[in-house]
Each structure stands twice: as C-alpha cells, then as structure tokens.
Fold this protein.
Amino acid sequence: MNGAVNLPLDESELSFTASGNSLVRRSILPSGVRILTESVPGSRSATVGYWVAVGSRDELPANYGSTHFLEHLLFKGTATRTALDIAVSFDSVGGEHNAMTAKEYTCYYAKVQDRDVPMAVDVLTDMLTSSLLDPDEFETERGVILEELAMADDDPADVAGERFFEAVLGDHPLGRPIGGSPDTILSATRDAVIAHYRLNYRPQDLVITVAGAIDHDALVRRVTAALEGAGWDLERPGTPVDRRSGSGAEIVRGSALRTVSRPIEQANIMLGVPGIVATDDRRSHLSVLNSILGGGMSSRLFQEVRERRGLAYSVYSFGSSYSDAGLFGLYAGCSPAKSAQVAELMHAEFHRLANGGVSDDEVRRAVGQLSGASALALEDSDTRMSRLGKSEITMGEFVDLDETLRRLARVTPDHVRSLAADLVARPLSIAAVGTVDESAFASIV
C-alpha cells in the first residue's frame, strides 16, 4: 500500500494489502450494511466490532443520555439469550466483550480466539438487532447508570474534563457529557430510548469491523446469515448513511473560566482552546506538537512543571478531534496553593511553542516517539479493529502504518510553530476542580 486508500460509499467491494502484509477488505451489502476486515498474518485471535454512527451529540433535548442508556440495555437480553447467557458465551471461551458510547459513534465489541469468531458474530448480532429492552431491566439499569455517573463525579479529573468541554465548546452538542446527567437519566423514558433504537439501528447505519485471524468471505456469510435470522431484510436496497460533514462548525466559547469547589488535596486544572477537526490535513502536525508540549517525560510541560520545579505529579497535553470541531488542552494536578503558578507555567509553555518555535531535535524525538507508539499499538487487534471503524465512519480513508510514518516524517518545525500560533490565537478556557478560587486564574483569562 502506498498512500491512503479512499473508502467511497458507492463502491461495494474493496481489497488492498496494508503494511505488514495484512489484507484489508470491505464489502457493502445491498441493504447498506458495511463489513470491513483486516486479516493479520500469524494472528490466533480477532476483535469484532459492531458500530453505529450515532453518539451523544446526536441526541435531542428530550432524550439526552439515551445513547449511553441503550448501550447498557443491549447487554440485558434478547428473545433467545438472557443477560447471563450473553456473559457466559464469552466467559466460557476466555473472551472479552464490552461496549463504548462516544460523542459520534457507539461500538459493541468482543475479542476471542479465531475459532470463536462465529459465536461472537452470532451473539453481537443478536444483541444489536433483537434486544428486548425489558421494562424491569430498564429500571434496573437506570440505577446502574446513576451509580456509574456518581463514580465519575467522585473523580475530580473526570469532573474537570466535563467542565472543560462545556467551557471550550459551549452550546455545541460535542460539549455535552456522553453519559447524560443524573437528571436526564432519572427523566429518561423507555419509549424515548426505544424510539432512539429504532431510528438509528438499521442496516444502513451498521458497520462491522474485524481484525486479526479472519477470513473475509466466511465472515460476510456468517454476518448475512445472522442478520437475516434476526429478521433484517438484507435484499431490500439501501445505501450507507452519509458521513458527517468535515466542515468546521462555528464554536462559541461557553465560558472563559469554570471552577468546581471540592474539599480535596489537589487542584485539577485544564486549560485550552478549540482544536482541529478529525480530517484536517494538519493532524500529523498536531500529533507532533502534542508530543513536544506534553506527550511524554521529555516533553516541555513535564520537564518544566514536574522535573525542574516539582509542582505536579501528573502534567500533560492532549487533543480531541471530531467531524466538525475539536479541542486542545493541557492538564495538571497540583496543590491548590500552587494552582495559579502551575496554570501560568502551562499557559506560558503553550505560547512559547507558538512564539519561539521548536528545534529540529525536538521534532525528531517526537516523530520517533509517535512512530514507535503507532507500531506498538498495532500489535493489538483491538487497535486495528478500532482503526477500521473510525476510518469507515469518520475519516473516509484508511491510513496504514507506513503512510502514518511517512506523514509524521514530513512534519517540520515550521509546521508545528504555525499550528501552535493558530491554536493560541483561539479563545482560551480554564476549568478547575478543587479548593481553588477564580482569582487564581485572573492573570490568564
């Protein structure tokens, strides 16, 4: 493979060889169901993912939290399997199964030995197509989700992250919490969740990705049989749902500063700005920028805040990119008495990157770090399965390891400085949780 491979929605069959001699294939069934596989030489296991391109951002005010609620409910039983049956199916073969609700998609997945892939396909298909959404289980799971939200609310870093997204992205749907809030979960109705299920879990919405020890043709046959057995009409013509627009949305900052008072030992501080969209050509530049600023123990933030001054144990930078918006942030956990100093140091390092630029040596180290991390991550079939799903749902192209390394190798100090200058010119927001006072950040915001 030489360069990225486009994934047009009107091409029913694709096949190409990626780095490491893995074979990538895609089939689009007449109904619009998309099936992608990456067969990896020497693998003895595979990760299976069932994706639906609907996430928390797609919810209406009347059903906030429905996507996450539904993810829980699909594990609670079908007409032919109880919740225990589903769990036993994977536990009895040493497999793993779980799900994730994100802001722009939901994925149900399992990792099993190669011989157990047919079982994984059958169980995941049954869950996704034939969940009972039982009224009693609905109420039971409401309690489970409330406990999950309470657990997250006990984690000050999680709270800071939620407030940070709200501050940076404002009223954009990406600024909302993925799991909803206790109020929205308490007010959720089974009818609203069922309506959400019927609207978004259809053949044209479904993307199935499998990576590892897999035979594509055998998988397509198994998926087809399982979906038809569940009552889906796969011969009825349909086209895959369009991908989201990659045009950047207009972001109006929610607030410059949000603080949450908590009687805890550390202040959890996040500061940052709107970032770049997932399909931005500068995403490799952002990866290098993030590595230099706060992506490891040799990064500027780690060296300045932790190593030289001893002001924090955890300090780093991060980026999140979505179809039409993004966010770039810096995080530190420190003594409340040091929160003003730490925030000012992070802010200064961010600006120094834009105004002073970076050296060739810093770029070289960052590219080396990212290249190695990319290669190591692909030793895991979970990563490969996820790459297939995001390529199909969000990116519209498949980028293998060789192309990733080529793109990283082309990044220059000028690329990093230019992107940093673009980012620091955007509206800054700060979120802080702990025994902190808003006046500590007055010099920054």
